[in-house]
């Protein structure tokens, strides 16, 4: 990564999409907990369909809101050198109050 851009590798991200009636969550699975690299950040993005659009907001450190017909929830985690995993607060002032309804095309 440093050879491609002037950025540091902080960690990874992945999504938990809805599967049928089973909603995706923004929490780590047991497999996720084992696969996080020590001293790195892992973002988990839950993607679910919804008939109700939500303005972007933060609750319990998770950022959530709607993008057109999908509800998105983002949580961040950090794994220390001793393997302890802590949930991080997602801070994104730009997204707070954003309403995607005006930008959706049908
Ligand atoms: Zn996962």
Give the SSE map.
Elements: E1 11-17, H1 30-35, E2 41-49, E3 57-59, E4 62-67, E5 70-79, E6 85-88
Parallel strand pairs: 1-2
Antiparallel strand pairs: 2-5, 3-4, 4-5, 5-6
This protein binds zinc ion.
Walk me through what this model shows.
The protein has one helix at 30-35, and strands at 11-17, 41-49, 57-59, 62-67, 70-79, 85-88. It is built from one helix and six strands. It has one domain (11-96). The protein starts with 10 loop residues before the first strand and ends in an 18-residue tail after the last strand. Strands 1, 2, 3, 4, 5 and 6 form a six-stranded mixed sheet that branches. 16% of the residues are buried. The chain is globular, with a radius of gyration of 15 Å. The mean pLDDT is 90. Bound molecules: zinc ion. Residues 14, 16, 29, 32, 44 line the site of zinc ion (ZN).
Helix content: under 10%
Q: How many domains, in number, for the residues?
A: 1
Rounded to the nearest angstrom, the distance between the terminal CA atoms is 38 Å
Strand content: 35-45%
Gross geometry: globular
Largest sheet: 6 strands, mixed
Radius of gyration: 15 Å
Overall mean confidence score, pLDDT:
90
What is the number of helices? 1
List all distinct small molecules, including ions and cofactors, that are bound in this structure.
zinc ion
- The counted number of beta strands is 6
List the helices and strands in order: EHEEEEE
Q: Residue ranges: pLDDT <50 for 5 or more in a row?
A: none
* SS content category: mainly beta
């Amino acid at each position: 990564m440093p050879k491609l851009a002037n950025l540091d590798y902080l960690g990874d991200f992945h999504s938990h999409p809805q599967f049928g009636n089973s909603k995706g969550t923004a929490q780590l699975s047991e497999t996720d907990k084992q696969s996080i690299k020590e001293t790195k950040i892992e973002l988990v993005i839950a993607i679910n369909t919804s008939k109700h659009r939500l303005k972007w907001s933060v609750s319990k450190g998770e950022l959530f809101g709607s993008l057109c017909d999908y509800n998105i929830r983002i949580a961040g985690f950090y794994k220390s050198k001793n393997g302890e995993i802590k949930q991080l607060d997602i801070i994104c002032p730009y997204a707070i109050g954003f309403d995607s309804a005006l930008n959706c095309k049908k």
